[in-house]
Amino acid sequence: MSADVLLASPSASFAEGQYNRSNARLHGARKVGHTVQGGVTKAETSASVPASAFSIAPMMEYTTVHFRAFARILTRRALLYTEMEVDQTLIHNAAYRDRYLPFPADQHSVALQLGGSDPASMRRAAAYAAPFGYDEVNLNAGCPSETVAGKGCFGAALMRQPLLVAELCTSMREGLASAVLPGAPVPEVTVKHRLGVDDSDSYAELRDFIGTVSERGSVSRFIVHGRIALLNGISPADNRSIPPLRPGWVAALRRDFPHLSFDYNGGLSTATEVARARADGPLAGAGFMIGRAAYARPWDCLSNADVAVFGEDAPSVPSRRVAIERYAEYCDDVERLAADDGELAPNPRVLVKPVLNLFHGERGCGNWKRSSDYLLRQAKLRASNADSTTPRTSDLLHAMMRVIDDDVLDAPPPPASFSGNDDDEEEEDSDSDSPMRSSMMTLPGSATSRAGLGDGVRVVVSGRRRRKKAQIVYENGGEEEEEGEEEGKNLKASAAA
Ligand SMILES: Cc1cc2nc3c(=O)[nH]c(=O)nc-3n(C[C@H](O)[C@H](O)[C@H](O)COP(=O)(O)O)c2cc1C
Fold this sequence. Notes:
The structure is a single chain. By secondary structure, the protein is an alpha/beta fold. An eight-stranded parallel barrel has the order 3-4-5-6-7-8-9-10, surrounded by six helices. Strands 11-12-13 form a three-stranded antiparallel β-sheet. It has 22 helices and 13 strands. It has three domains: 10-308, Alpha-Beta Barrel (TIM Barrel), CATH 3.20.20; 320-410, no CATH class; 431-495, no CATH class. It binds flavin mononucleotide.
């Protein structure tokens, strides 16, 4: 993997031919067809499956350029979202822009997420981002964080003002059009949002939101986190687990707005689940986004995506050993570039962080993390000693690999097929118990009313052998995924570490 354009000027990175023009076409493609082979509908060939068929969610402090580099090693095809970048930061901090907006040429397709609520500021922020060649620019209308939503109308609070959202999208598009490099297409502007916010939680309000934003803001693709946001009183982590998931509402949006695209987000864990959901049911052929699981269990989640979802013949990497080797090369590139430019290289801890969960649930996972901590401390000590040479991050990664058994290092990605049941994951995700299926069995009967949505609750335990997964399934079509919440805590813990 090359990081030649990391920290390069926008024009330099574009001049090196990084822009993937075909991608804009793929994003805009209407996804049709309901019979799916290996995640590819009959109306699609592998080459025409849009990157947005499977995307990795924007996650503050997680989907950094380095995590995206690692994710790109695991899947050549998935769409990668950045962390949210706040408009004011981009406008007022040139050093921040130079540090955080560039990305390697081989990282496409990448979507930049912007946060803000002032159309003029969003126009300026989008213009600053335009020359970097993002494939899509997304407006955050779903984040419930106090630091975001609390500042007036921002993040999920924007859902209460669809006209403003439409204006923001128009402004972002104008800003992008004013500053893309000559010959480059204007990236598509999309919106990531919730089903509603606080007591603005009816399907009718959601439908009005989509109608206004699509018509007045010319937005044709929406990424829907399939639960409402509660802005008063519960934490962002609780906001990702307590409000019930309602994938049926996203299916209803597809039915009500057949000319628009909707990607579903919330509660999914693996590319295999995505392939299955694309294959059948009310969300067949839709795009799907995964957040927490992509970070907490990158191998299970991502490594078979190219085959399972995109219909490629082979996965991007044959084993975790190869993935680490490639990521080590990336780290070498990053450190060499920094040295060439006379800049400080990223802290090795920052570079190692994306691979820490690579062996989640595997033999040796604890040793892998402990050895990384030990080696990083040693490296820090050596760095502070003028007489010794500082090891490269790739040296640390190679040393860490020694604590993992060869059979684990060389094991292939999970099978991409989802018809058999001879695999733990397959059993865990068995059709009858999957969160998507359980929820879809209770779709809102009418696209315009909530009638028939009861408040009954039942518990479904799925997964027969390895990792039982308990879900509280609301009869109204949502579920609280307890394991997902656990992952959220793990993410926090690893962030604190
Ligand atoms: C640590 C963390 C940070 C997040 N940051 C953002 C963000 O910056 N922008 C955004 O739209 N959503 C953000 N989210 C929400 C995710 O994009 C996603 O919508 C949510 O996690 C539900 O998907 P999942 O169930 O697949 O994790 C964040 C989630 C987590 C766990």
